[in-house]
Amino acid sequence: MAEGFTAESVKVILGHLECSICCTRYNQPKNMDCSHSYCLKCLQELKKTQNPDTNKLKCPLCQKETILPLDGVTGLQSNYLLIALVEEVNKQEQLPHGEESKVMCQACDEENAAISRCLNCEHYLCLECHKAHQRLAALKNHEIKTLAELQEVDETQTESKMNISRCDIHPIQELCLYCMTCEQLTCKLCAVQQHKQPMHNLTDLLTAVEICQTEASNGVSQLQRSKFNIAAMRNRLSCLFQETNNNISYHTEQKLEQTRREEIRLKQSAKFMYQKKEKNLAKLQFAEKTMSHTHGIMTNKNRLEILKNRQEFFNKYEHDVIVHEDQEEELTYDLSFIAFCEVENEVELGTLLNKEKWELMSEVGADTACLSSYSTGDIVAVLSSQINILRQLGKDFKTISQIKCKDISRPTAIAVNNEDHLIVLDNPNVKTLNKEFQLLHQFTPGKESGSKLTCLAVDENNLIAVGYKDKGEVSLHNPDGSLIRTLSAPGIDEYMAISNQRIIYTCNKKLIFVDYQGNKKIETTIFECDKGLCCDIGGDIYVLYPKRIQHLSADQGKHVEWIVINQTDGDTITCTQQGKLVIHKNKYRYVLCVGGLPFLFITES
Q1: How far apart are CA 536 and CA 577, in angstroms?
Q2: What is the pTM of this model?
Q3: Contact 370, 412 (CB under 8 A)
Q4: Coil, helix or strand for 249?
Q5: What tens digit of pLDDT does each residue of 543-596 get?
Q6: Is domain 369-549 in CATH 3.90.70.10, yes or no?
Q7: Domain boundaries, the chain
Q8: Per-residue b or e along 352-365, where b marks 16 or more CB atoms closer than 10 Å to that residue's CB
Q9: How many angstroms separate the CA atoms of 501 and 561, rounded?
Q10: CATH architecture type of domain 7-162
């Protein structure tokens, strides 16, 4: 052992060689004006969290400020005593196995190795002194610990120290309080600086945990009364929130585009109004000037002056505006007036609703047998080779275009993928059409077995699922038509949807969920007389029956509500990417509304 150091002294100083910020052994310790020392790197990181534009650094222990030299933290005086102590301890720890420094007996001068320590005498004891301590009557009550026991206690204390959660802003401070207002753990310094009462509700950790347990108990009682999965509900809320933001942005852009067009129209009208009034005023001013030249004898000079005046007054209106005699306004002071009057509420975007609300809204006629929708909210209705595109204009839907597509003949199901490509089930083929309704590619699923295709669905990754009623199967395909795998789906009929990478189909009085590996995940009871089904952006399921729609949850297919259709039965149902339900029925037309958004019923016109 180096001269000047004993095993006892090394043992004592170990606990004082740790930086209060990083809680590890000092590395390049620097002195602050308050005499506290910290690692160079710790002080550099601390400076970043405080005001980096000043030459002051606040001590995290005592909050006293130190004026930094020109070269910053690096220029602070090094603590050479700590550096020497750390080096000596490091040397002792690096001794070869079997040659580690020994703790010597302090009760005798025989330089025997200590095996224990008397906590009352505060001496390390060798074997003989240990026995003497036990023999002497005056020392029998002293508490003696072996070195192994002392080591165990030290490790326990070290572990307890490491498990203490410390404040990120004040690393020396323990997180010992909880702010109920900010829902945040805090230290005492942060509590004083950032969580002052009465604006903030501070409590100790024990009370905060008791409050959490009480709230959890109340929440459990609600969960026990509910049949819905909370995680799935949060997922649905997140999806609908994102879609709500997208819809707000989309309709804002639509309103802005309308406003820009209205701006151009109003400016053109204002220009015409200004020029009309200005020319009428110019004519009157010209008449006034002309009369001043006609009170005497007309000369060539006067005539030339009159024509020059006319040219000056009217030449600039030659191409801009023509004012007919019947458009001339009476000379009043209004000829000098033009202004813009704002119309209130004309650009109101809409409202946010807190609960789902269904109501009949409007109706539209279109030749259709199959329905789907684009990302823009436009609805595509297909019958034979006729494709109709419907768009919401104000509160109504209008057919904005009708296209004859030579590439399809008798479609029985359609879907739209994320690229706004139209996927058409046109037996025996599945065809993909681009936005201009031109054929991109097609494939023939089930051609080896000659099975008839009965239903179609597309997922969020543009994978295509095709159902076969006669085989009780579903084939899953890549967007190009290549087969991924075939899944068992006994009892599948004409109706199928995809939600959260699960294929959903109806089978008699059951709604069945099958994952992409063919495993049946859920089977829930429904009514037998279904007319179709679809899923919304959040994955919730809607099953169509005569005169009503059943709304079921996305995760387990739990019943949510009945949506009553008083008018008549629907034939098919789909859901737009904006969350609008669209239902088709021959001879009848009606629209539903949920959450303030229009939901459309279409009839064949």
Answers
A1: 7
A2: 0.57
A3: yes
A4: helix
A5: 988 888 888 888 888 888 888 776 556 678 888 777 778 887 764 443 444 434
A6: no
A7: 7-162, 177-220, 232-336, 369-549
A8: eeeeeebeebbbbe
A9: 24
A10: 2-Layer Sandwich (3.30)
